[in-house]
Each structure stands twice: as structure tokens, then as C-alpha cells.
Design brief:
The structure is a single chain. The chain is α+β, with helices and mostly antiparallel strands and 109 residues long. A hairpin with a 2-residue loop joins strand 3 and strand 4.
Length: 109
């Protein structure tokens, strides 16, 4: 059996939906991978609160705000190299009441 390459990490992405149910995905970290890229690599398994949340990809619009390992953040500007091998992503509590703004921002793109 081949030994793993030292620069390759296998990540476990734990994605919670608004009700708290969790789905786990294993993926290979690529160089310069943002958390947004990792979420996209998980494929069509996005929970409803994330399906259309990614607009600007620069951390400017805040429409993709989530809790990353329990802290507020945006996945488009968070790099997985800065996180552990097990990363949890959950809906951000701060997103409640922002739906109107999110819809305006999404409509412009």
C-alpha cells in the first residue's frame, strides 16, 4: 500500500442544516482551497440555506455568512489550510432577518 503524500490532507466537512441535522463529506484538500471550494466539492449535497448563498466570492456581500467551527465567517475568504482536518459549517444565527437583503443582492447578479 502506498504511503500518503505529506502535503495532501484528507478533510472531513460536517455541514449542518437549519434544523441541526448533519451531513459529512470527505474530500482532498487542494492548494489554496477556500472553504467555498470545499463546499462546492461536496456537490449537490448543499443544505437549503447554502444552495444559492454564494454571490460575490470576495467576502464583500456577506450573503454566504455561516458558522465555521462555531464562529461567524464567510467561506469564500476562509482557507481550509487555516482550519483543522474536521471542519463544521452551520447556518449563521446572524443571518436571521437578513433574507430580504440577501434576495436583493442575489437579484442583482
Amino acid at each position: 500500500m502506498n504511503a500518503p503524500l505529506p502535503h495532501v490532507r484528507i478533510l472531513t466537512l460536517v455541514v449542518a442544516d437549519a434544523g441541526g441535522a448533519q451531513s459529512e463529506f470527505e474530500l482532498i484538500e487542494t492548494e489554496g482551497m477556500s472553504l467555498l471550494c470545499a463546499l462546492k466539492q461536496a456537490g449537490k449535497a448543499f443544505p437549503a440555506h447554502l444552495e444559492e448563498a454564494f454571490v460575490c466570492h470576495a467576502g464583500a456581500c456577506n450573503t454566504c455568512s455561516v458558522l465555521i467551527d462555531g464562529r461567524p465567517g464567510v467561506p469564500c475568504t476562509t482557507f481550509v489550510r487555516e482550519l483543522g482536518r474536521r471542519i463544521s459549517v452551520a447556518p449563521g444565527h446572524h443571518a436571521q432577518g437578513w433574507d430580504g437583503l440577501r434576495n436583493v443582492v442575489r437579484g442583482g447578479h
